[in-house]
Fold each of these.
Amino acid sequence: MCGIIGYVGSAERDAPDAIDVLLEGLSELEYRGYDSAGVALANGTLDVHKAEGELEALTSSLSTESLRDPAVGIGHTRWSTHGPPTDENAHPHTDAEGRVAVVHNGIIENYQTLRDELAADGVTFESQTDTEVVPHLIARSLESGDGDDGDERYDSADHKRAFRRAIDRLEGSYAIAAVFEGEETVYATRKDSPLVLGIDDSDGGAVATDGSDAVAATDGDGSTGYFLASDVPAFIEYTDRVVYLEDEEFVRLDATGWTVSDSDGVPLEKPVQTVDWDAEDTGKSGYDHYMLKEIHEQPSSLRQCLRGRVNELQGTVTLEELDALVDREFASPVRFVACGTSYHAARYGASLLQRRGTPATATIASEFTTDRVPVADGSLVVGITQSGETADTLRALREAQTAGATTLAVTNTVGSSAARAADHALYIRAGPEIGVAATKTFASQQLSVSLLSAALTDRASHEEVQSLRRVPDQVQTVLDTSNARAIAAELVGAGAFFFIGRGLNYPVALEGALKFKEITYEHAEGFAAGELKHGPLALVTEDTPVFAIVTGDGEVARKTISNIKEVEARDAPVVVVTDGVSDVERYADYVLEIPETDERAAAVLANVQLQLIAYWVAHEMGRSIDKPRNLAKSVTVE
Amino acid sequence: MTVRSAIVLAAGEGMRLRPLTRHRPKPMLPAATKPILEHVFDELIGAGIERLTVVVGYGRTAVQSHFGSTYRDVPIEYAIQDKQLGSAHALAAALPTADEPSLVVNGDQLIDASIVRDTIERHDESADGTIGVVAASDVTEYGGVIVDADGTVTELAENPTDERCYRLNAGVYVLEPTTIDIVTSVDSSEGEYSLPDGLSLLLERGETVNAVETEGMWIDATYPWDLLTVAETLFDTGTVESTVASTAQVHESATVREPAIVSPDCVIGPGAVVGPYASIGDNVTVGSNATVENSVLDSDTRIGSNATVLDCVTGRGVEIGPGSAVVGGRSDVRVGTAVHEGQRLGALLADRATDDGGVTYAPGTIVGSAVTIHAGRTVRGSIESDTEVR
């Protein structure tokens, strides 16, 4: 998983320099990977710069003054899959002669075969990456090209042909962009990896389709040019007009316009869409970290999630985009599939449905496909993925579709692969999330599956709608009054951290532990409270704080309190997250309070306290909170 | 001349507005339904400002989360003042960004674009600074400015009580970068580094400060009940317009009497009457047959069925139970040790105060944050935050 970007400046004099656009764009894509970065600029010759480490290392190694001229280039920020993060393994990769430079996101599954084949032809490889086969394949196609007039100089038609031929040989997933010596053009394509085209020209995006080189004419003022990126924030500063590319489509950008064609080279008419992300949403707005900013954005993102979907006067929940779905009967059970944090939202969703009497399961997406879980024809499979690009979840959805299930993607990203691959999409409307550790998107996923469970079972109530409408302000209350920072300071340095909860609070315990380990690098684990005595209790000592989530005063709360007593008997510091209804505070060393509400909403509020605990412990320990080691925001490899 | 940059001072709590300011600074309190600071930004942008630096401190997450990194496409930079030691100290936090003549304004007082425009227009390089002033009959609660016949400032005084002819300092300045350096170097007086003191220092050094008297609107909410008059003025001057948001659900048998604003996601139940002079914030619920008149209800407030709410100010997430009555009218209101006579305030309920229903509020009641009032009580006077009235 990596981030790629490409840029072609418009023919106007005041179009920005490619180097600026690329570096700014890469900084917005760092959440996709940040162990090395590089750029290639095309200005007759190719100029390639790359460096191990965060983008900062690349930026500081460049003397940007000398790179002012070129208006065309590609860039890459890397999260290692093949080969360690080193200068050599950083993208862009080139052929031996430096005629072509390539950036790639994804995994080329047959790269070993291709590498052996090229090596047999005498090609020497500079890196250990799968990507490097691509420039060498392109170079070989160039050299052996039909219609080569024997001239050493290759023209645009040669480049186009060679690029396509090389791509034809690849198996696996990829978004690839390339620039060539002698031509100020970017070539790109995708398969199972995201790639979006951004357009900032002056003509509203009309596309001419007069022959093989359909271009959108540009002649007005104020246009900056054409962009390609793994994700919209990379160029949102310049344009909100985008074209989502489908698998195996090819795109060619030059100063006069853009062309998209299918795998046979037939030009396609693509709709230009407008995205409603503000550049506003991508700054840190005075917070030290994106994660803290995003934690504080939860009241407003949850309002967005609910807007127009709940009606308190009638006590109903309406999900407009699922009108065609909610009235249908589905074969049992409803299956949720997801990974990581989204999997915890999936567990929460399955529990909610079960409570309403609808059989439901939640399965880790990679295990779902590995186990070949039997999917009943006519059943509903719900894939939850923030980015909409999570490879494991996409694969599970595709397999479920093949088996005859109706598929639903619950995602934050309009136009993402999951939204397009699934039969239906439910948007969580959380806005862009930059911190690698998911926070506001998890809260919005919780609320979205809550809405979904009500819509699917057609049974909301005034009380339920009322409690949903209270959630944004109750989250604000938690943010206004939390003492997590002080508690975090007391707990730093403990040996391990455990999180327990029952029922709807079990996924919260899992998520609390995941958040904690992601950004503090400390050992943290979440358990179903009832499982503690079946093994994990052996780990509990006076040096292992235990976080327990206890809400309400019912049987579930009382049982969890019994588990807390077991922990207390081992002298472990106990931190309870509670609404104060039960007497659990008597057994606690520390208390994180949440407002009193129903158990569904309480799970959303309790999680916010645990987000703050993870943040402040990591902060105290000086961790790289927005970019934890070895992790990437959305994982587009299986 | 043209001034593109503004430095907005929004770090102060506004202690006289307690308990409303428990979780947020005064600039984030509602003027009708929008924060005071949002009105200020609107007017600055209306006057041509293209770059905002906002000094934040007390309750700063409330500001940062509300506005983010841009407002109406104008980039916002945040400068953080960790301790609130006065307006000159706040301005010092913005020094690194003050690289050109800048407008400096208070983020907690309502101004209109004409004050800003007049001040910018009056300023020229020959002066080190320019102050916007307005005519006012009484400046004893505010800053006074003495202006001579040619429009230059001769003296500044805070809360002046003498009989001289003061103009009211509207808290709108244009300052040259070098001037900002000087005024922020002022010594503290009683632990406070104030901007008027900084400007006095400038005058002592013989520098020129011009004043421009403007006709523009200037309103300060000093005490909680002022939020009602602020909203009234905004309605009466047409600064805000009566609206019902498209995402609000208003029952067909409910009545909205203008002027009134019903914000997004609100629910107005059957038979309820909202207005006139009702400013209803985001996601507020007004129950069946309830009445809300001359009131400012901040976001997420819930008014129970059959409740009567007159001359009332609420913070966020307040719950007034079914059948409760805020009867409204004038009374003496006690704030700390001072008694303010004859103020029109039905009740003030700070963030997340709740009553269980059937509660009667005597005029002038001030209910602290997170107070719980049990059913059937009658309350008056001042109730401490986080307490319970049984």
Amino acid sequence: MSVEIGHFALVLAFVLSLVQSVVPLSGARLGSERLMRVGEPVAVTGLALIATSFAALTLAYVQSDFSVLNAWENSHSAKPMLYKITGTWGNHEGSMLLWVLILALFGAMVAFFGRNLPPTLRANVLAVQGMIAAAFLLFILLTSNPFTRLHPAPMEGRDLNPLLQDVGLAIHPPLLYIGYVGFSISFSFAVAALIEGRIDAAWARWVRPWTLAAWAFLTGGIAVGSYWAYYELGWGGFWFWDPVENASFLPWLSGTALLHSAIVMEKRAALKIWTVLLAILTFSLSLLGTFLVRSGVLTSVHTFASDPTRGVFILAILMAFIGGALTLFAIRASRLAPGGLFHPISREGALVLNNLLLTTAAATVLVGTLYPLLIEALTGEKISVGPPFFNLTFIPLFLPLLAAVPFGPMLSWKRGDLPAAAQRLQFAFAGAAVSGLVSYFLIDRASVFAALGIGLGLWLILGAVTDLALKMGVGKVKPSVALRRLKGLPLSMFGTTLAHAGLGITTLGVVCVTILETERVLVMQPGESMEISGYSLEYEALQPFTGPNYTEERAHFAVSEVGGRPLGEIVSAKRFYTARNMPTTEAGIRTMGLSQLYVSLGDKTNDGGIVVRVWWKPLVTLIWLGTLFMMVGGAVSLFDRRLRVGAPSRQRATAAQGASS
Amino acid sequence: MVFWIIAALFTLAASYAVIQPFVRGSRTRTQSVEHDLAVYRDQLAELEREVKQGIVPERDAEEARAEIARRMLRLKDAADEETARQDGKSRTAVKVIAAAAILAVPVLSWGGYLLLGSPGMPSMPLQARLQQDPSRASLEELLARAENHLSANPDDARGWETLAPVYARIGRYDDAATAYRNSIELEGATAERESALGEVLVGAAGGVVTAEAEAAFQRALDLDEGNPRARFYTAMGSAQEGDVDRARAIWEAMVTELPDDSPWKQAAGQAAEGLAPAVTNQEDVGPTREQQAAAQEMMPEEQREMIEGMVSGLDARLRENPDDPEGWRRLLRSYVVLGRRDDAEEALSRAFAALGPDSEDAEALAEYANGLGLTER
């Protein structure tokens, strides 16, 4: 019964989303306050219904109810409970349901936390959210219904793709989707403002928390996805410029641009049109990502063409929303009043530069992602645009951006003083230069590029710290005063520092691991040992092991310093999932400080040996540590008191009553 | 029934969400511009804080103050516009929209669900299905239940022994063979178990008595030389290899020795009848063409079809899995017995290709083929 309840709740949620997309919008047009207010309870109820539906599907997985087609296709009774639950969104139908669940969650949050928004703006935002929800709920119900039943029900399921039976992949999609879908709020705000035809500096303030939250989650989602690929695929790479990765990176790039241009708009009421356009583009890229990943167009343009129902449906949604929003933009953009003026060298100018480089980088990645698809569609030829393309195009765009980052916060609004900013950054620059030189001369095999890269990473970190130190007045005032000032600084400044430093940390990790990593591939017999980067690895034995739904052969390696003390054991395994006849590689990873020793198994040889690939990855964990800094930076900014501007003053007098009612 | 009640409650809750703003009293009305003003006032306050902390110099602050003030002034125009808009006479439109929205919720949701859903179909959690009354369960469910039990208790010999014939009956011969092997391993070999294992191996090979099956029958006969199943299939193996005399001898012996109520007696009788007449004088040469032709004529249509079926099954298996000298030997012999000499020669060249022309296996096979009167093409 619970399955059917879930199905019914989903249909009901669809109907409510229709109501939500029509009624508040017409209320705003007709000036009827009651119609406008319909949006809020409907958004909250819609969330409750979709959550019920999602819970029902999860229950079907937990109970191994194979009368549900989706559970039969993607679950197995012997699977560990954790993966039964996460299996709910480890497949197309379930992940789309998660997508709308998060969409509904954001809608309900606008209804709940949006008291400080003008009623018409709130009504319009909810209406646009309702439209997106309606489109995707219809898509789920008609083409990807997770509640399709099977009769008679089979006794055993076909198991989840083994690659997805992993903790990393269990949390990756939810984080990524919170990011993707979070940008729908920025989109809704942009469209709502265009519908009203009025956008001010206040608008940027209202959008900012939503953009920040989405951006922080997307950052986390991408990082977790990258770490998963790193240890689960067994190749030891952290970023592959794979279309699926690019699909999540694109909204991140434009979302980062949006985050920065919204600052200019909030402070100076400038860049209005651009900010609105970015808000539309960012969510459009999120939708494009959903389309690329979910339509199957990436696997092959031809499989997509042979079973196009889903793909065409998403494509229609994509065109309707992007096309509609851009048309509205074209009609209304000219009516938007221009904002404050500024000198090219100023905080605004720096942020414009940031936006230019970020959007160009995004365009490059977009071309690199779509070009192969276009070629395949037109000529049938399959080409792949790999890392060389992105290294040649993306990196030259991104390096100047990174180099310019520390200058931005040093420049003042309206007109800045570049020499003065440079002077203030002299210590950061000196520190970066020295560390670059030191690494060039002291570290083995460090090339000029490595030295420059390490210098760049430290330049970012030190630049971020310098900014904070200057705001505290370090060097000018007494330490106690500086400390007191530090406490008084708005949280968003800490956010900036953390995020910019995080960028530097990630850069440092990427540079170190790309240029300084060492790799050895060899055939090892039990009892043999090898050395890599000062560590010795002895292959002890291969032992069979039986997991709940797989069997594996575990290779045990004893690690020690060369000629020195033992450091324990690394276990790397080749796993075989019986239900799907699929092998996977379970890399053995040992973290030493910030670096990692990575062991992956290849094929067995006839004489009892096994192919072993070992990497020494110096400072590799910095890549993900840096993203953690960025996420925390986003979260800290989110709690800045300025983003919690209360309701208008007339209500402020009755705030106590208002809050309790 | 419970489902419909819950569905009705959900519908009610959803409808209430739509009606709520109309039944609850109007909230204090605020104008949009007041929300904007709140932001700008906050910006001013923030500016003052920053000036006090020395982050923003007084000169810049003055300009910023003026800018924020200008934004506040501009809001006044927007406020006037908004007041004008709210005076519109649209009461009918509001009522129509509200009514349509409230009506849409139950109508569309129930209509949509009836179209898409499977109302009345219960959930089927696996655990509950495994525990339900066995008499109402399907064979498949019983099997799953037994498999579940055995995967948890793989040492339950009786379980394996019970499960094996069930597998055999529904054609899952490989699983049946595994089950018999487990039971032999746990409880020890008996003639009955070994011969049953041989039988399912024959089933798995599409009716061909393979070397593996023959070994099982031999073990059964070692334990009990009178085991009728093992004797019957040993004879069948001989027949398939062309040793019709031996087959006939065994089957005819079974007919005379077995008691009347034994099912094997009848089977052996029928099998013996279906055999080709005795072929004599073939100590080291294969059957002549005439003899084969005669054998073919004597073969009843039904039996011939059965054997042809087995042979083509074996042929197909060898195409997939050609590294099997024993299989090739059997196939060659069968084709010769059936009089399909061309096929036999073609199979021989395939076998050479598969085994590697110079390999030991190929040499042994060539010798064997020679004995059958075949030459490599």
Amino acid sequence: MQIFDIWAALLQDKEAVIFALAWIGWGSIMLFSILRSIWGNGLGFLESISLAIGGSVLPIFLAVIPIFALGAFLGLHITPVVLLALMFFTAGAALRATRQTQDEAKRVPELSLLIGGILLLSVSLRLPFVTNILFPSYFDSAEHYRIISILIQDYENASRTANFISPVASYYHLGYHLITAVMTAIAGVNLERMMLVFGQIILAFAPFPLFFIVRRETRSDLAGFFAVLLGVFGWYMPAHAANWGKYPALLGLLTVQFALGILYLVNEQKEKTLKFRAAFVLAVLSICVSLLIHTRSIILIGIAIVSWKLVEKWEWLSKAVRSLFGGLVLTSLIAEIAYLERTDIFTPLLDPYLHEGIWVTGAVVVLSILAWSKHKHIVFTCLLFMLFVLSSLFIPVSANTFFTLLDRPMIEMVLFIPLSMLGGTGFAMLNELPFLRFKWLKIIAAILVSGFVVFHAFARYSFYPSDCCVLIGNDDLLALDWMDERLPHNARILISSSEIRISPSGQSPQNTGADAGIWIAPLIDRPTVSLPYPSDFRQVDVLNHLCEQKITHIYVDSTNQSFNLEFLSARPDWYKNLLYLPDAQVYQVNGCRQ
Amino acid sequence: MEHKNLVKILSLAAVLISILACSSLPVLKFGPSESADSQTPAEIPYCDENPAVLCIVSFGANSQNRMVINFYKPDLSVPDFYVTVRHRETASVYECRTVEDIPTNIYCGGERIPLEDTIDIEVYSINDDTLIAKGTFVITAYALATAPIVAVIATNLTTSPVVTPSPPNQTTTSTPVITRTNTPKVTSTPFTRTPTRTPTRTPTTNSYPNP
């Protein structure tokens, strides 16, 4: 990683960085204040902060809804200065109202500095990603961009036209889209830049809520921090999900972890006191917001609850039955992993953990074994959670078996959560190992394990966009702008598509854009029609199909799932090249009879 | 060791991470224009070589027999510009256009240059006709098989002798494969498609690839 790229990102996207950080910071402070006013000393300072970071999305979402409604329906638009001032004063008032003990007040400046430093470092590590990329990666991003663009239009155009356009026919991660739309519209930045920057900032904050449950279980701050360290550096997930444009799922990671933390607190309350009721309301709210941010979040929360409750029952069983059940779970998990590794379509699922990250996963396994003696509940819950999550790949939710409870990319993204918790819990046991008798030995062991995780990350992982998923380059931008200027608005453009392959059974009901052509509809507002990328344009069948579909132009670029140029250039009488750039071409279909 | 050493250990970890982050710190490489005399126009490189300054992404051509030069401008303080292309002692002015909403990307179009010719590209500010940057390139070419137009590649004489644009990496198939198509109009819902022909699985790789 080049240190200058952090500065480059700050200079290039300073408005987006400031506003994204301001929103997340404001949300965290508001929720921190709420948590402290409910639990007081019942929650530690660091526990409250970690939980508040996860729950920051709640106040943000609750603020975004009225802001959007005021803009879209009444034409009242909040200015950036007013928004920042409102954030400043409300956060300040919330902090002033926060209760603190005397002992805690002494440590607050020190701990705030520490947390601020770690967050700053985490954000700094993620920002270089945005310097080397023009638009968010992969095909998901184009759809997110299109939906958010429409919401921005709805928000901004109300005073002029009062025509509200529905961005989607059905629900599709509308929570993420609404938040990003309001953020972008108020900050006045380009949407693609806000999507990129906000995505990286979510990524920087996403591992912090891991601290909460591990700290709560082990009573060790260091164990909590080690879980966070694993979340940041342990594996190339969830960071790689930014290359897939999985921004709603990334934002969902925050709300899911918050919901789990609050449910943990609900579970701790033995009596139905005010705290119980408050925790219950927060839990319901967090589950609702999680659902709106990303639908499958609720499945993850459900699996976590079932796992936790099953382990509670398991603990009441006799030792023999416990051992039998425990062995059964472990054997099933190993068998499932072995099956996934042998199934072509699922091989990528465990790559971050079993191939690229095998050393870190190995360390986590060792730490889990250490943790087993004292923290059976959390260790077994994590194992059961992983077993159920992996099993959900095979549970269809519709007649088309392609749709399952959770899909491969989602599971690949979230497995870091149980693994980090296992690692953190085991880390706490370093303090209790009999052969680490001396304090300095314990410190050296802690530094060695943490240093290994960090060193492994810097040696193996890239903090920049992966070549796998960048669909749009500089030549594509030129070609799109050229098409926007030269082609009529009723031009129908053929773009390349490929099948979505994430499930071994069933078939995706839709193909998806496979090159920069996917950006034609959202960026230059021309209708597009897709055809699988291997299509042979020398065949008369293909030409006839294009004529039936009234295709006027074809877009080709240099990504490896775009159309084959040789096929097009083989029939100059049918396809006329209008624009040639090394990495983007536009053809006109001339072979159809008038 | 809990609270006493927490700050120390984490500070140490932060320093370690910072050192690692800086470990690949490049030798200070600001653009050549930083240290050069402000009156001397900067040299135009290919963006592959140095994307930190005004650079050329690629050369192309269109069906109106015009050459297209694709520029990238990371520094937005560089003023709007036009381009003069000199070859065989004649000079042509190329007008430039900024990609809508993307001020870093500019492209210029003008007279098609004969193949194998050396060209001098000069970039001038629209405001005061100041020479901002210049470079010398050789237009080499390859013809697409039976294609109606010839693709244009240029070589920057001032930097590296050969620059080959990455060729399209395609998967070829010998039989027509029309598996599924989308609905006629997808402007509003580009992900909605309905099958119209006999579905056949296309030979695709897994979606959502790992790095």
Amino acid sequence: MTLITETTLIENLKSPSTKERAFTLLLDKYQKRLYWHIRKIVLVHEDADDVLQNTFIKVYKGLKNFKAESNIHTWMYRIAYNEAITFLRKKQKRLQLNSEEMNTQILTDLKADAYFNSDDIEWQLQQAILKLPEKQRSVFQMKYYDDLKFKEISEILDTSEGALKASYHYATKKIQAYLTQ
Amino acid sequence: MTSKNKHRGFEVPKGYFENNKNSILDAIYKEKPSEESNFNIPEDYFKTSKKEILDQIEKQKKQAPVISLFKNRIITGIAASVLFLLAITFYLQLTQDTPQIVENTPLTDPLLNQKENIHHSIPLSKKDKMLAIFVDDIASDELINDFLFEEEIASTLEEDF
């Protein structure tokens, strides 16, 4: 989406007469991308479905306060990321698990998910990703799966680009080491 | 990396994105306020209005209910008056008509004759006559039959001894 069309879209989203139509366009354009972004964080389809819905509800409600200081898609990614992380934290609290137990729980849920084919390579990759600290995991997922630029990731995670590059570097090294051991 | 390889192993239900779009829109438009139709509401209106409604309900619960007895008194009074008039009318008709009916009716049944004799032989006060209006005929007959039966037993016993 070019800057001009994005500006027009934002204007349409803020105008009561064009809001619904513009929002449907926004949904068409970003639904899949946000779904996969969320899915790679929460892993299970059903959870991703819940988080995606909450994300779009928050996007819709937040449109009136959205200031075009960042791209709308970066802003939406940020909402989606926060929703997914909040979802996992709530789940961990509800199940009264520590971080390690929670990772085991996520993998157990993933294996039981009807919408996950337990491909050996993918399974090992998910195990390796879950062993990373939260920030390294997030950077790796956004770079590897979402193809986001470091600048965009820095806006989403509110971290400097330099720190993100370092985190990504460590993350890839750890994953390589895990997969080749 | 191609998009397919990126999501290797992960699947979604068939037609998920098409259907999900509608469910997201439904979820949003179901709970949105009516701002799209240019009717705005104050911020947090529903939160505060809900509290106000609940407070009002609680307040009304605390007030004791007031039941007006005046209306019921009037109805009861009217009903009592009508009943009294009916009773008087019925009593007057009975006191005027009954002797004629008795006189004109041929009594062939000795038991009925006996009953009639009892009616005429027992002197009734005005109060008894008033009360008689409210006595059921069947109950009255049963009482008379019992009385006659006892009389017959007594006379039989007298004859035997």
